[in-house]
Amino acid sequence: MKAWRGVCLVALAALGCEHGPRVAPTAGSPAIPTAQTVRAAWQRGEAIRVVVLGNSIGLGYYADGWEQIALTPERHLAQPTEATGHGVTAQLQRFLRARNPATVVANESGDGATTVTMSAWLDRVVAVTPRYDLALLPLQVNDANQGRAVSAFTLWTERMLDRLTAAGIVPVLVKENDLYDLPATRFGTPIADFMTAVDQIAAARGLAVIDGYTPFHAAVLAGGGPATCGLFWPHDDYAVGLHPNQAGHNLLFQAAAAWWTR
Fold first, then answer.
1. What is the pLDDT of residues 202-233, one digit of tens each?
2. For residue 215, is the peptide bond before it cis, meaning its omega torsion is within 30 degrees of 0?
3. Which of 58, 99, 103, 226 is the right S-S partner for 241, CB 3.0 to 4.6 Å?
C-alpha cells in the first residue's frame, strides 16, 4: 500500500470543540439542525443518517479484517453501509446502529482521498435520498502527505462545507491521527498546522470538531514515538507513523464514541 493512497480517516476523538450555530432561527421557524441536535436525536433512540467522508483510514486499512474490504474502480467501498472489518468507521457503524438499527452510517471514504477528490465525490453524496443528516470530514492527512498548502486545504474544505450546508447536511470536522517521519519532499508542512486550520474554520463557521489528533499524538509520545507506541502499521512504504494499526483504530473509535455519548 503506497503511503499516499490512504491516510487517516476519521481520526475521531474524545476531545473536541463544539461551537454554537452562527444563525439563530426566527420566531416560528423550524430549528436549524446542528451537530448537537443530530447527536441528541440519536441519543433519544431516533434513527439518523450519517455519512463519513474520509480516506484509507476511514476505509479501515490495516485494522483486523482489512483484507476483506471490497472497493469499486473509483476506490470507494462497494457496500458503503455494510460494516466490514474492524476499522474505526466499521466500529462506528456498529456502535451507532446498536442504539437504533434503522440508523444509517454510509462510509463514502475513498482510498487516497483528499479535499480535492472528495469535493468531486460530493456530487454523489448530496444526491442521495433521503438526504444524510450529518457528515464527518476527516481529510487533513492526505493533503499534508501530498504536499498541499494549508491555504489550499482550507479553500477546498470551505467548498465542501458550503456544498454540504446548502444540501441541508450538517458537517462535522474531524481532526485525524498524527503523522511522523515522512520525507520532506512529500510532507513539507507540519500536520499540526492543518489541525490549527481545522480549528480556525470551525470557529469561523460555528461547527463542531471531533479532535482525534490530540489524544493520538499524546499516546504516541507516551509510547516513546511512532516505532514503539504500538499504534501504527509497521509496513508502510515510506515510514512508520502513517497508517494506524488495530490499536490505533481502536483509539480513534473510542474517541468517536465519547463524542457521540457526551
1. 999 999 999 998 999 999 999 998 889 999 99
2. no
3. 226
- Altogether, the residues listed in the chain come to a count of 262
| DSSP label at residue 96 | H
Tell me the pTM: 0.86
Widest CA span of the chain, in angstroms? 57
Q: Strand, helix or coil at 42?
A: helix
Give the number of other Cβ atoms within 10 Å of residue 204's Cβ: 11
Pairing of strands 134-137, 104-107: unpaired
Phi, psi of 147 (to 5 degrees): 85, 15
| pLDDT of 20 over the 70 cut | no
CA distance 152 to 116: 9
49-52 β-sheet, strand order: 15-18, 208-211, 170-175, 134-137, 49-52, 104-107
Q: What is the pLDDT of residues 118-139, one digit of tens each?
A: 999 999 999 999 999 999 999 9
Q: Give the cell for residue 31.
A: 430549528
- 99, amino acid identity: R
Dihedrals φ, ψ of 106, to 5°? -95, 125
pLDDT at position 24 over 90 = no
Cα-to-chain-centroid distance, residue 250: 14
